[in-house]
């Protein structure tokens, strides 16, 4: 199953809200949904905006 942009953003927001740092968020999402689901740059950019 491939996630759309909104779903990826929601996963990142959830990880941010529960206190996961950006590096661990990349690792956790990619472990759960497949390597390459989210990139490091995307996660760091979104965390900066939160």
UniProtKB/TrEMBL annotation:
Segments forming domain Mos1 transposase HTH: 9-45
UniProt superkingdom: Eukaryota
Gene3D superfamilies: 1.10.10.1450
Protein name: Mos1 transposase HTH domain-containing protein
């Amino acid at each position: 199953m491939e996630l759309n942009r909104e779903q990826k953003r929601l996963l990142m927001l959830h990880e941010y809200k529960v206190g996961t740092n950006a590096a661990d968020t990349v690792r956790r999402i990619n472990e759960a949904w497949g390597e390459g689901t989210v990139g490091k740059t995307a996660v760091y950019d979104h965390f900066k905006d939160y």
